[in-house]
Amino acid sequence: MLRIHFSAGDLERTQVAERVDPLWEMVFSWRRLTEPDGWLVLQPWLRHIRRDGDRRVISSGVRMWSVLTPLGPYFPDFLTPPEGAQGLGSALDAIRSTPRQRLKDEFARLEGVSPTPAWTRPLAAGDGASLLELTESMARYHAAVVQPYGDLIDEAVETDRLHRTGVAGSVETLLRGMWPLMNWRPPVLEVQYAYDRDLHLNGRGLRLVPSYFCRRTPVAFADPGLPPTVVYPLHHDWTWQRQLASGRRQDGALAALLGTTRSAVLAAVGAGATTTELAERLGISPSSVSRHTTVMREAGLLTTRRQGLSVLHQRTVLGSALLGTG
Asked: Structurally, what CATH architecture does the domain formed by 252-323 represent?
């Protein structure tokens, strides 16, 4: 749990960013590219990247990001500078201008949690040519992985912001709208977080940054002295609902979006079905049904509850709308 302590003036200085931060999106995107479960809501993006993306640039970028931002308790803050709010160019300029002592300190901390290869040594020493090469690699990766999906990302951010803030909501309305990712208990904002820590704003206010590729829990800077920032996963269900209301579906037909088997499982649920019933209806194994229903439950398309010795699956409103029966 991350506990963010508000004091006088912090509410007035709290804001939600109007767009994603390009550096944070790159950090999260490489993780989505390497996940074994293939997050359902990102299937259109994954298919686009794998079909049309520059494989050399993407593979090189994933290797780079996996070293610099490993899974775990820490990665260097200099890689996601606050200047990302002004766009990719400003963020890359900030990275190239990182003070040498800060680079040395942050790489030393990174080395303590995840051993780094020899090619990071010039970066840790603040070598200008190495920093330039790093930012050029970042720019190529962004152009290959994030930029092609920019229109949908922008639409998702706008939809998420409208749902959380309303037309003219107050800051406290905004914070309450972050539930269940965050729980506003004045004067403390409790944030779902991978590690237990406290952050005192001390009049600096808080910047909340939506992320298209962030998953499950928000992320904050490791250094409490940096401008207080929380990057949070936007709510993809709202984007789907908005597209359905306008008569559009992501990436074409339902089968193309979900995959043939998952779309068949969603249709076979009908008014409700157990795992065994779905297996019999579709001629697939119960274990296969369970894998697909787990993914669709996480995406908000199905609900699952225990019914005696069986597990009953039912479509949600969103699941029915996607199927065209809502």
From this structure: Orthogonal Bundle (1.10)
